[in-house]
Amino acid sequence: MILFVVYNMETKNILIKNVLILNPKDNDENNNHDHIEIFKGSVLIENDRIAEISSEISSSDVNKIIDGENKILMPGLINTHNHISMNLFRGIADDIPLETWLKDNIWPLEAGLNGKYCYAGAILAAIEMIKSGTTTFNDMYFFMEDVANATKDSGIRGCLSHGMIDFGDPEKREKEFKENIKLIKNCNNKAEGRIKTFFGPHSPVTASKELLERVRKEANKYNVGIHIHMNETQIEVENVLKTTGKRPFEYLEELKFLGDDVIAAHGVWLSKEEMNIIKNRDVKISHNPCSNMKLASGISPINELLEKKICVSLGTDGAASNNNLDMFEEMKFASLLQKVNTMNPQSLPSDMALKMATLNGAKSLGLENDIGSIEVGKKADVILIDVDSANMTPMSKKISSNLVYSANGSNVHTTICNGEILMENRKLTKLNEADILQQGNIAIKELIEAKEAEN
Ligand SMILES: N[C@@H](CCSC[C@H]1O[C@@H](n2cnc3c(=O)[nH]cnc32)[C@H](O)[C@@H]1O)C(=O)O
Ligand SMILES: [Zn+2]
């Protein structure tokens, strides 16, 4: 009797009843078809994990029941490249190429950042992600312990790295290592295991050979992954060619830097040889179509990467180059961009886009045993999509068509991460939305005023 009471007090159960379940799968030879399993059923969540999936689950002894009528249940979306605190810089520098965007616009503003501002930007971003169905993000930025606090407070899952830039300066390098290692020591596996830490060498242009070589050693030592920007613009590739005589992936191959724990953002300008290196080393590519289009960086040859069975996931990049964190938009743009790039409407079909935003994201972050699909034993990172809305009516026979081509983030009805309901019926359960929006506005106003006072 006593045992029964203790069990009931400690186990938090959520039953999602009679819902259309959409599950990305890795089950076939052909990388372009049938990645998505769809069936009607009920899902029982016990504490942080999916405990049961079947057609009939008893409602007794359940703390909470969610009616799945008119809803699709799918894995929470995984955004594999971001700088979430940059939500503060939304709309601050539009219609400019990457190099000037960074040097003349973003870096001067970033000089005024502190932990409080980075928290304000990150928690704002967390709201945006929860409200548009993202449950995991991969981040590289400053003041990452404050971003860790925002991750903790918001309930979502985050992979965090300190963006390391040294431009060859040994003192700066030392500081960057100290900072990233401190982040790893203080935050790895924290917030009920929702936080993982990575090393974040910014790019082969901004980080020296010494920095990159040391990152590989330290990543092995601490057993964490590496998050880096690669081959984003033609200018960046030319710079690496000029200074090293090699293209960026060839250069990193020579440094023995690459491995299956490396997630490379962008990968826009890639030679055939570089694609082979990526494949051989099982490097993961985070494709950021909106950012690449907005900064006119170019079109990544995703079709070719997928044909080679390279693991490609999706990221938004920061809100200053996107300008939002809606992964539904990212799926659609990824698909449309490959279609027009190859002049073939069959390129990157909706099933593949969904898989990139879920299962491939999980694999890219080394989290495939825990997230990315709806399986018993995996973490309960799931979202419910409301199909009872004008832009989802009528539902296509191919559910992924509605989700990728018709939906947007505001069709997300409920967001659950690590077994906790973070939004239900579009209402946040943990965060005070109005207050956080206001804090975000104050932060950017102060940052701009401080910069203007300097000039
Ligand atoms: N510790 C470094 C900060 C690096 S954080 C990561 C950096 O990446 C920048 N960033 C954001 N988006 C992109 C992009 O698309 N390409 C390259 N850099 C970017 C961002 O503004 C930030 O400066 C320092 O001392 O400067
Ligand atoms: Zn970036």
UniProtKB/TrEMBL annotation:
Query: Which Gene3D superfamilies does its entry note?
Result: Metal-dependent hydrolases, Urease, subunit C, domain 1
* Residues that coordinate or bind substrate: E110, H202, E232, D317
The record's annotation in CDD domains points to:
ATZ_TRZ_like
| TM helices/strands, residue ranges | none
Q: Name one GO biological process term.
A: S-adenosylmethionine biosynthetic process
The alphabetical list of record keywords is:
Hydrolase, Metal-binding, Zinc
Domain Amidohydrolase-related, first and last residues per copy:
72-421
Which major enzyme category is it?
A: hydrolase
**Gene Ontology MF terms:** 5'-deoxyadenosine deaminase activity; 5'-methylthioadenosine deaminase activity; adenosine deaminase activity; metal ion binding; S-adenosylhomocysteine deaminase activity
Q: SUPFAM superfamilies under this entry?
A: Composite domain of metallo-dependent hydrolases, Metallo-dependent hydrolases
Question: What Pfam families does the record point to?
Answer: Amidohydro_1 (PF01979)
Question: What's the Enzyme Commission number for this chain?
Answer: 3.5.4.41, 3.5.4.31, 3.5.4.4, 3.5.4.28
Per UniProt, Zn(2+) binds at H81, H83, H229, D317
Q: Annotated pathway, please?
A: Amino-acid biosynthesis; S-adenosyl-L-methionine biosynthesis
Question: Which reaction does this chain catalyze?
Answer: S-adenosyl-L-homocysteine + H2O + H(+) = S-inosyl-L-homocysteine + NH4(+); 5'-deoxyadenosine + H2O + H(+) = 5'-deoxyinosine + NH4(+); S-methyl-5'-thioadenosine + H2O + H(+) = S-methyl-5'-thioinosine + NH4(+); adenosine + H2O + H(+) = inosine + NH4(+)
Cofactor detail note: Binds 1 zinc ion per subunit.
| InterPro entries listed in its UniProt record | Amidohydro-rel, Deaminase_MtaD/DadD, Metal-dep_hydrolase_composite, Metal_Hydrolase, MTA/SAH_deaminase
Outline what the protein does.
Catalyzes the deamination of three SAM-derived enzymatic products, namely 5'-deoxyadenosine, S-adenosyl-L-homocysteine, and 5'-methylthioadenosine, to produce the inosine analogs. Can also deaminate adenosine. The preferred substrate for this enzyme is 5'-deoxyadenosine, but all these substrates are efficiently deaminated. Likely functions in a S-adenosyl-L-methionine (SAM) recycling pathway from S-adenosyl-L-homocysteine (SAH) produced from SAM-dependent methylation reactions.
* Assigned protein family: Belongs to the metallo-dependent hydrolases superfamily. MTA/SAH deaminase family.
Q: Any other noteworthy remark?
A: SAH is a product of SAM methyltransferases and is known to be a feedback inhibitor of these enzymes. As a result of this inhibition, organisms have evolved efficient enzymes to metabolize SAH via different pathways. The pathway found in methanogens differs from the canonical pathway, it uses the deamination of S-adenosyl-L-homocysteine to form S-inosyl-L-homocysteine for the regeneration of SAM from S-adenosyl-L-homocysteine. 5'-deoxyadenosine is a radical SAM enzyme reaction product which strongly inhibits radical SAM enzymes.
Question: Protein name, please?
Answer: 5'-deoxyadenosine deaminase
- Source organism of the structure: Methanobrevibacter cuticularis
The organism's taxonomy opens as: Archaea, Methanobacteriati, Methanobacteriota, Methanomada group, Methanobacteria
The gene from which this protein is expressed is mtaD_1
